[in-house]
Specification:
By secondary structure, the chain is mainly beta. The protein is built from no helices and twelve strands. It has a six-stranded antiparallel β-sheet with strand order 1-2-3-10-5-8, with no helix packed on it.
Length: about 140
């Protein structure tokens, strides 16, 4: 079997990758991204410290999130908040303002996120500031 792609398969090991501070007590480890050849989606892991919450935001594409560890709540504009347990998985439509919050004040919480567009953006609800998700992970 031959492949027309210029990229080779990649195995990513999160414990060997650099994390990036998201603010609000959260840090992200980007995984699949355009930097390794992804053209249709991106993903990564975000760890929230005790009681951490990220700002309300939306994306220009669908998003799926799985709770890997800890206790979390998903808060969404115009919808009931939902408490998540380990391995609960969400699907969020594009342009829905939302955020995840760690419900524990003593333990961390981790999520795996997947955006259905390699050019996914994050728009902060409060300020309207918009940037590419992958650009947040440079440096």
């Amino acid at each position: 079997m031959t492949s027309a792609t210029a990229y080779s398969p990649v195995v990513l090991k999160p414990d060997q990758l650099k994390s990036h501070d998201r603010g609000g007590g959260a840090k992200t480890i980007p995984l699949v991204s355009p930097a390794i050849g992804a053209s249709t989606f991106i993903n990564g892991i975000t760890e929230f410290g005790p009681s951490a919450a990220i700002a309300f935001h939306s994306h220009n594409c669908e998003e799926s999130v799985m709770l890997l560890e800890g206790n979390a709540i998903l808060e969404m504009e115009g919808h009931e908040s939902v408490v998540l347990k380990k391995h609960d998985t969400t699907w969020l439509p594009a342009n829905l303002s939302h955020r995840f919050r760690n419900l524990s004040d003593t333990e961390s919480m981790k999520i795996l996120w997947i955006y259905a567009n390699a050019q996914a953006t994050r728009k902060l609800t409060e300020t309207g500031e918009t940037r590419f998700v992958y650009a947040e992970h440079k440096g």
